Amino acid sequence: MKFNNIGFIGLGLIGGSIAKKMKENQPDVHIIATAGHQETITEAHNMGLIANDTLLPLEAFSECDVIFLCAPVSRNVDYLRELKNIIKPDCYITDVGSTKGDIHEEVIALGLEKNFIGGHPMTGSEKTGITSASSSLLENAYYIITPTAQTPTEDVEQFHDFVKSLGSIPLVLDCGVHDYSTGAISHLPHMIAFSLVNLVKDIDDEKETMKTIAAGGFRDITRIASSSPVMWQNICFSNKEQLLRLMDLYIEQLSSLKHSIMDSDQQALLDYFASARDYRDSFFIPPKKHRTVFELYLDLDDKAGEIAIIATIFAKDNISIKNIGIINNREFEEGVLRVEFYDLDSMNLAREVLQAKNYTIYER
């Protein structure tokens, strides 16, 4: 698997960010691209990111070693059909779509299993387009790899290394496992958020009392309902089977909870809520032998300058910070700061330094 001549079909936020990181890692890499708008190509060329300055026909990608499909899922499937008779025999095609079932089915139907490795960078932004792309967008984000049944093990390992070179965390999954898993932790929650917002909209009174007092938990659970309607319309179609299966399971959960409330079953309710709390809390504590997250939480006065003080404390002791930020939901907690470190030693030293200055530290 060689990464010398690269092609991008679609060059928005994700595709542009991958291209920028590749160019940063290997300045002499040759990249060409086409997109839905000439402005995208012009901008990317002016950045020095791609070689071409005009939109290209797919025939121009015939000598590419790797082609990234970065268009919407349904368009990527169309591009596959067109590329089948264009690519050279050892060219690899990969995609960045958030659902994998449809494209893997088409890959099998076209006999392209030896030429395809699916990909899904689990990152993004509220911003879109090449101008918002960043070489750091993929850092420390899961990048799911979905090989086909005929992808050579060596090629999967090389693609695994490539993903790591982007700063991402590679995770190899079967495409069906990917769609079911992302359906549960991403697609279903969006459906719940959309439906909850529409419920409140439909039952609110003329004074908009519910809208007025909406805060805390409601804002947090429905934040994702502000996502692109068109994108979620497409996801519903591309992951329809898994999403419907998960919605049925969720309705069963909600029905069970409803009956516990109807029956005033105090123990059942307590067990249900405790089970959810314990499982949710465990998200912050990866298994020790696979631990990749080193983080501390601390109480912090919610006022200007407090984060800068913490950063200065760490700088004086040469403690590198991987990530830092306020936990935004303060309905049940005061200003709580989350700090992530690169390694265990840094986290332990940070704990000692902060405790010496009388900060209250939490680990989750």
Strand line-up across the major sheet: 2-1-3-4-5-6-7
**Element-by-element helix/strand order:** EHEHEHEHEEHEHHHHHHEHEEHE
Estimate what percentage of residues fall within beta strands: 5-15%
Classify the helix fraction into a percent range.
40-55%
Q: What's the total count of β strands? A: 11
Structural class estimated from helices and strands: alpha/beta
Low-pLDDT regions? 285-291, 328-335
Q: What gyration radius follows from the Cα positions, in whole Å?
A: 24 Å
How would a textbook summarize the main sheet? Answer: 7 strands, mixed
Name the CATH homologous superfamily of the largest domain.
NAD(P)-binding Rossmann-like Domain
CATH fold type of the largest domain: Rossmann fold
Distance between the termini: 41 Å
Number of domains: 3
Number of helices: 13
Shape: globular
Gross CATH architecture of the largest domain: 3-Layer(aba) Sandwich
Please give the CATH class of the largest domain.
Alpha Beta
